[in-house]
Amino acid sequence: MNDLIVVSFEHLDDAREAMRHIRSLEKDGQIELEDTAVIDVSPDGKAHVKNELSGATETGAAIGAVVGSLTSFFLPVVGIVIGAAVGGAVGSLFDTGVSPKFVDDVKAQLKPGTSALFLVVRKAHADGVVAALRPFKGEVIQTTLPSDAEDELRRVLAD
Asked: Which of 2, 79, 91, 103 could bond 71 through an S-S bridge, CB–CB 3.0 to 4.6 Å?
């Protein structure tokens, strides 16, 4: 089962920097992400959302590529169209990422000059995620982590 972790940060660049730390864990094989999003709210109050590629999109694209390749062998132009359509349909069926409505709700709560990080974690070592976020000061907005891991994350972000 996937875990959701949403953290707000006191500084504009902290969510992006925390995402870099999380991506290094991903490269080392310590974490598998399903979906991520970063929100930063500029000092003038304008919010910027960066949604990253979700696992559902990746799966849909892979399936679409296979279907498109097979179909294009027989009908080249039709194969490309069918592959793209199948890939998009398959990706939307999974719907495992961060809800756009939830992102909008969090975005509305953030103050100018702050940021937030959304992680949908497929598989991870909780202490690795906590360690990656240790350099930052923030607040857990929502999480589905086990209570002991959530408590540790809250403690680390408050220090």
From this structure: 79
CATH code for position 23: 3.40.1520
**Torsion sign (Cα): 110, 115, 119, 125:** negative
Sheet of strand 31-41, all strands in order from the earlier edge strand to the far edge: 47-51, 31-41, 115-124, 3-9, 138-143
Structural domains of the chain, count: 2
Q: Which residue do the tokens 């930063």 mark?
A: 40
* pTM summary value: 0.71
Look up the domain containing 18 and give its range: 3-53+98-158
* 49 beta partners: 39
Tokens of residue 60, six digits: 């849909």
Q: Are residues 49 and 102 in the same domain?
A: yes
